[in-house]
Amino acid sequence: MSGGLLSEVTWRLVFFMPSIVALVTLVAAVRLIPREHSRDQARQPLDTPGAVSVTAAALLLVFTLTQAPSAGWATPRTIGSLAGVAVLLAAFVAIERHQASPLIRLGLLGHWPRVRANLGAMVFVGGWAATQFIATLYMQELRHWPALETAAAFWPCGVLGLFVAPRLTALIGRFGLLRVLSAGLALSVAAYVLFLRIGLTSGYWPVLFPTFALIGVAFGLSFPALNIAATDGVRPEEQGVASGLFQTSAQFGTALLLAVTTAVTQATVHPGTAEGVLRGYRAGLIVPLVASAAILTLTLVAAAGRRPRSHAPATVPPVVEDDVASEPQPCG
User: Fold this and answer.
1) What is the per-residue pLDDT across 12-62, written as a single tens digit (0 to 9) for each?
2) Rounded to 5°, angle at Cα 89 from 54 and 125
3) pLDDT tens-digit readout, 145-171
């Protein structure tokens, strides 16, 4: 077997290894995890109308924001689509109010710290997804880096977060949840500001590495902290719903901010020259920067409004232990 063919086979194995491990784990789980037979709880009916209305609203909103730059923001099509989003969301609220078993109990959305945490997840995860998209375009399309080199450039994001997450419990116990969250969000804002320095000949270590390193530490601090805030104080029987809402907010934020960033980039890019393309990339990066700065401001205001901490030893909610240990870090 030639060296080139061996290298190709090796990379194929590396590429498919996570899928193979996931498949083996799934098969083993079906065989090894005992079935839960619950006779105390009746099976709840599926809230199909609520699921359909909120999903349709999310899809229509992302589609509208993606198509608006080409269709025009003031055209009847765009305005009508946004009106359709508002109607679908209003229908979702009306459905949830009258459902015997709602998809989301609206009372969960009446707690501002929980809403702020879900908005934070939406912006934090979505902002990095949009920045990562622009960074990939910058490295591959503008700098002509190979795909493998581009992927390897993101290594600080995943690696550095691993050193932060295990210490999160102690940090929250010492400084408080909002202060730790504020620190993580501030690091993400700083990372986006640094990334605006990208140029046609920027080096990896002075420009790209600091951004990816700060984001890695920011994920280790912010994502678990947001998860804790989103599920804190929720009744045990609604922990699954609150956690699902948090994850959905993060995923929807990815679609939403990526759509807005792409729209801004397309509207400002000038494909004729490298400088024109770079100008469009920088304009797109303003979207996650502004959104992250807004969430950071809300968090700082909330932290400033908290009563001063006593000198008694700080305690961390029990949910911290499980979430920090098991929550994946969606970075890189």
Assistant:
1) 555 566 677 778 888 887 788 787 665 555 566 788 999 999 999 999 999
2) 60
3) 999 999 999 999 988 888 898 899 999
One-letter identity of residue 104: I
First-to-final CA distance of the chain: 34
Q: What is the largest CA-CA distance in the chain?
A: 69
> What does pTM read for this prediction?
0.81
Hunting for tokens 């009372």 — which residue is that? 107
Sign of CA pseudo-dihedral 301, 306, 310, 316:
negative
Nearest to 178 by CA among 317, 302, 262: 302
SS3 for the chain is CCHHHHHHHHHHHHHHHHHHHHHHHHHHHHHHCCCCCCCCCCCCCCCHHHHHHHHHHHHHHHHHHHHHHHHCCCCHHHHHHHHHHHHHHHHHHHHHHHCCCCCCCHHHHHCHHHHHHHHHHHHHHHHHHHHHHHHHHHHHHHCCCCHHHHHHCCHHHHHHHHHHHHHHHHHHHHHCHHHHHHHHHHHHHHHHHHHCCCCCCCCHHHHHHHHHHHHHHHHHHHHHHHHHHHHCCCCHHHHHHHHHHHHHHHHHHHHHHHHHHHHHHHHHCCCCCHHHHHHHHHHHHHHHHHHHHHHHHHHHHHHHHCCCCCCCCCCCCCHHHHHHHHCCCCCC
Look up residue 108 and give its amino acid.
Answer: L
Q: What is the dihedral of CA 117, 122, 127, 129, to 10 degrees?
A: 130
Rounded Cα–Cα distance for residues 330 and 56 (Å): 25
* pLDDT value of position 121: 97
Listed in sequence order, the residues at least 6 apart from 208 whose beta carbon sits closer than 8 Å to its beta carbon are 135, 139, 153, 195, 198, 202
Question: Which amino acid belongs to residue 162?
Answer: L
**243 and 48 Cβ atoms separated by less than 8 Å:** no
Take residue 47 and report the two structure tokens written for it.
């809230």
* Share above pLDDT 70 across residues of the chain, in percent, rounded to a whole number: 84
